[in-house]
Design brief:
single chain; mainly beta; elongated
Length: about 55
């Protein structure tokens, strides 16, 4: 079975009820969508995930 590894970004903020999960396409990293997520909700907890391939 193949090993799965992932890089992640987690930033806990004031609005714990509405986290934003940032998923991007090929070629991005776990922090690329932070500016857009902050436009949506400046107080949201952010979670970004990037796989190993």
């Amino acid at each position: 079975m193949a090993e799965i590894t992932a890089n992640y970004f987690f930033e806990k903020c004031e609005d714990n009820e509405h986290p934003i999960l940032m998923l991007h396409g090929t070629g991005g990293n776990e922090k690329d969508l932070v500016p857009i997520a902050r436009l949506i909700n400046a107080k949201a907890t952010l979670i970004g995930i990037r796989g190993s391939w």
